[in-house]
Amino acid sequence: MNVSRYDERARGLNACMYAYYAQQIKESTGVISGVCLDAGCGGGYLGLALAKITNLNFIFLDISSAMLEKADTHIVEDGLQGKARTLLGDVHSIPLEEGSVNLVISRGSIPFWKDPEIALKEVYRVLAPGGKAFVGGGRGTPEIQAQIAAAMKARGIEPPNDRKHRDGPPNRMMKRDYNGILQKSGIPQFHVTKGNNGMWIQMGK
Ligand SMILES: C[S@@+](CC[C@H](N)C(=O)[O-])C[C@H]1O[C@@H](n2cnc3c(N)ncnc32)[C@H](O)[C@@H]1O
């Protein structure tokens, strides 16, 4: 992944997509204060969008220090020093205490997790009683995707081509049986949706 190009697009052309998912997360989970973990955060785009509409404190976790450098920069740009910190780590072994997080969010990272069952159990472990998780991936609604594609075209950028990336991580994610994985994990409360805004798993504790 080209970190700089990904980051530039996430903060620019794709910003509306993160704002859309942040709103969805706020409405679906109702968690607007406490601690939020953005797992596989990249440069922190989803959490940073959620910070604009909630009073949450953030931990931005990623396995890539290059991505976390971007997140650190954006935390300062968005004036979130004291409310947000970065954490280098693997979602399969989250370096946080059990029950220490009120909300776990994650977008676009789950297709890269080597063992989603272990990783989802980790997400559940760090949730506090009453906590919620909203984890998955997608590129927004068809309207948002069309808006981004038009903006890319106007700038002479080739939009993402699903056929070309037929066997890529996002398509693998859409095909995977997350209901089966979650049943096997023993996590008692979960809900999986697959639709034109992606694949999303919601969990409660
Ligand atoms: C496609 S990017 C998504 C970044 C960001 N969440 C977004 O929505 O733009 C996938 C991210 O997941 C991270 N990642 C992949 N495997 C991971 C793991 N096992 N633990 C933590 N982060 C991971 C990558 O380093 C990368 O930053």
Question: Would you kindly provide a written description of the structure presented here, covering whatever features stand out?
Answer:
The chain is of the alpha/beta class and 205 residues long. It has one domain (3-160, 186-204): 3-Layer(aba) Sandwich (Rossmann fold). The chain is 40% helix and 23% strand. The chain contains eight helices and seven strands, in the order ααβαβαββαβαααββ. The chain has helices at 3-11, 15-29, 45-51, 65-77, 116-126, 142-154, 169-175, 178-185, and strands spanning 35-39, 57-62, 84-88, 101-107, 127-137, 190-195, 198-204. It has a seven-stranded mixed β-sheet with strand order 3-2-1-4-5-7-6, sandwiched between helices. α5 packs across α8 (178-185). The longest helix is centred in the N-terminal third of the chain and has 15 residues, at 15-29. The protein is globular. The model has no long low-confidence stretch (mean pLDDT 94). The structure holds S-adenosylmethionine. S-adenosylmethionine is lined by residues 10, 40-42, 45-46, 62-64, 67, 90-92, 107-109, 112-113. This is Methyltransferase type 11 domain-containing protein. Pfam families: Methyltransf_11.
Write a brief structural summary.
This is Methyltransferase type 11 domain-containing protein. The chain is an alpha/beta fold and 205 residues long. Helices cover 40% and strands 23% of the residues.
Detail the topology: elements first, then pairings:
Elements: H1 3-11, H2 15-29, E1 35-39, H3 45-51, E2 57-62, H4 65-77, E3 84-88, E4 101-107, H5 116-126, E5 127-137, H6 142-154, H7 169-175, H8 178-185, E6 190-195, E7 198-204
The structure holds S-adenosylmethionine.
Residues 10, 40-42, 45-46, 62-64, 67, 90-92, 107-109, 112-113 line the site of S-adenosylmethionine (SAM).
Protein name: Methyltransferase type 11 domain-containing protein
InterPro entries: Methyltransf_11, Methyltransf_Superfamily, SAM-dependent_MTases_sf
Pfam families: Methyltransf_11
